[in-house]
Amino acid sequence: MADSSAGIESLGDLRGKRVLVRSDLNVPLDGTTITDDGRIRASVPTITQLSDAGARVVVTAHLGRPKGAPDPAYSLEPVAGRLSELLGRPVAFATDTVGASASETVAGLQDGDVALLENVRFNDGETSKDDEVRGAFADQLAQLADAFVSDGFGVVHRKQASVYDVALRLPSAMGGLVAAEVDVLRRLTEEPERPYVVVLGGSKVSDKLGVIDNLIDKADKLLIGGGMVFTFLKAQGHEVGKSLLEADQLDTCNRYLSEAADRGVEIVLPTDVVVDTAFPSGDREPQPSVVPASEIPADALGLDIGPESAAAFAAALADARTVFWNGPMGVFETDAFAGGTRAVAQALTEIDGLSVVGGGDSAAAVRQLGFDEAAFGHISTGGGASLEFLEGKELPGIAVLERG
Ligand code: ADP
Ligand code: MG
Questions:
Q1: Integer Cα distance of 377 and 297 in angstroms
Q2: pLDDT at position 149, please?
Q3: Is residue 37 within 8 Å of 26, Cβ to Cβ?
Q4: Helix residue spans in 91-148 (DSSP H)
């Protein structure tokens, strides 16, 4: 728990009170089918806690990136159904966020009942850069409730109406999910137990620069895979064929390599790579082959770390006491290129210490590959938010709860 911020108990007796909860229910959908309900499940404990305390719970959340206006493709209605199943109680769905349906739905709640408002991003005030526009929308949200609980960790790095401005207008508290996230992330940045190993992958170096900057002098080892590794390999003078390459980041990668050497941080790069001649698509079966990382053919692209590297990464993780992992080691969405990600995930489940998985795709990978979430110390629900925290940035949605 953060020192200066208050949990739900600080809101006092909640019986009969309307409590607005900002949750992160931004799940992947295929049509109206939820393909990964991890975030909904993560939101359940706080909603249950409030409901059990007799509050009239009003959940607000976003889905996808609608353009500030209603768009049926981004309706939260399917999420209301799944949330209801997971809570084991009905969830009243309001077909707008602050309109007539929302007012009626909230007015109809009994103590302990739960409602979900339609996608908060159907309103252009939610993400407006204009403080007044955002504030006016936050006023409307605040009218639906007597108190506010911030529990959407995936959005606390956003200065948005339902995350930030509403907390200025109602008695506010941190939900258990946000509190747990903040607690774990502090353990990664303040006196981590050693050895401390950071594993980075995913698509781009440029997405992760701030994290590398902030963690390079905290970690003992930095293991790099995923799409970003090819810019590092190229920086070391290897040809990378058609692999993902950010030519404008070559100097940065070189700087990291020499900085790590100066600080005695061990950087581990793959020695072999799984390649194919085309990015996986539905058009043809994958044709994976394993090549040395120093000999990627000109017509091939690297789609996973190879088996020798996967074993080396697992060995480098074996004695770790603290691990932070962000970014899949390969294009895990296709089984032929999931081996490296699977090996790293497996190694994390076996360490004797704190293992943290951060990042939306990394968390989805762990679940898709069939791992038991309980085998990890912590799976962060907020990709961008955990990265910004680890970059050392102030998160507006946390700061607003912690202000004196
Ligand atoms: P996270 O959401 O966990 O922070 P990212 O968004 O950075 O992770 O990256 C996830 C994506 O990176 C996945 O969709 C995966 O397919 C892709 N990826 C991993 N390895 C490669 C690679 N070698 N080439 C291209 N894309 C890759
Ligand atoms: Mg991602």
A1: 39
A2: 98
A3: no
A4: 100-107, 131-142
Nearest atom in ligand 1 to the alpha carbon of residue 204 is 7
Structure tokens at 194: 């050693």
3-state secondary structure of 194: coil
The pLDDT of residue 305 = 98
- The answer to whether the beta carbons of residues 175 and 151 sit under 8 Å apart is yes
Could you give the strand order of the β-sheet that contains 266-268, starting from the edge strand earlier in sequence? 266-268, 221-224, 196-200, 322-326, 354-358, 378-379
Displacement of CA 217 from its chain's centroid (Å): 23
**Six-digit token string for 369:** 């590959």
Here the tokens at position 248 are: 């404008």
The Å distance, Cα 311 to ligand 2 centre, comes to 25
CA of 221 to the centre of ligand 1 (A): 21
Residue stretches of the chain with pLDDT short of 50: 1-4
* CB neighbour burial string for 159-168, b if at least 16 within 10 angstroms, e if fewer: bbbbbbbbbe
- Nearest to 53, CA basis, from 15, 21, 20: 15
